[in-house]
Amino acid sequence: MRKSIVVAFAAAMFIPAIATAQRQAVVPQGMSASATLTPGIRHGDVIYTSGQLGVSRGAPDSTIQGQTKKALENVKAVVEAGGSTMANVLKCTVFLVDVKDFAGMNSVYSTFFPKEPPARSTVVVAALVSAAAKLEVECIAAVPK
Predict the structure, then answer these.
(1) How far is the C-alpha of 48 from the C-alpha of 112, rounded, in Å?
(2) Which one of 66, 74, 104, 140 is most buried, by most CB atoms within 10 A?
């Protein structure tokens, strides 16, 4: 009994340190992290991207196709900076402001995942953090060994 308590205590002390050591911020060139947002997190062999918008200050595009392309290019940059590729994306969530944009989003989305697309959820929301944004995309990717 005493030995199991010692082992449990040792695990409780060291496992959080190991888990924290595996957590790495992923910040592609041209993106930045802030006090409240990191473009991505790699934990072990998994990359979690933050939601990526399709709006750009430098080249604004108000079409769903243009915004989808930009958002997925941003996702791709995070995934690649984390050591993976879009072929290893396992799951995506797409947040759309207007359900009528689904077909336009899907036409561009499919070009980023031409075969064996990841699992996906598409959710219609009332608004996004940027008034000009039509969608936001977040993904989870595996990092191959």
Answers:
(1) 17
(2) 74
